[in-house]
Amino acid sequence: MLEKENLAFDMNARSFSSNIVIITYFTPKSNGKASHYKHVKMEGPARTDSGLVVLAPQFISPGNWIRVNTVNGDYMERVSGTR
Fold first, then answer.
1. In a domain, 8, yes or no
2. How many CB atoms lie within 10 A of CB 28?
3. Is 12 part of any domain?
4. Structural domain harbouring 59
């Protein structure tokens, strides 16, 4: 017979479905003649060190570390520090 054991799991979704990568190249989109009063979500393609291209916010620049959803490849957040 097997003895009962207590198991603990951290059900934080980030630990199961994300990866932290560094940005090597970013091309911000220009907002054209948009007024600074308009709240426009500007995203541009950012290439990671692994070659993955992710749509990232305008404040991301080469050398930044970001968290990427490994299920669908979407940008999640900027991460301070390194791996």
1. no
2. 16
3. no
4. 17-29+41-79
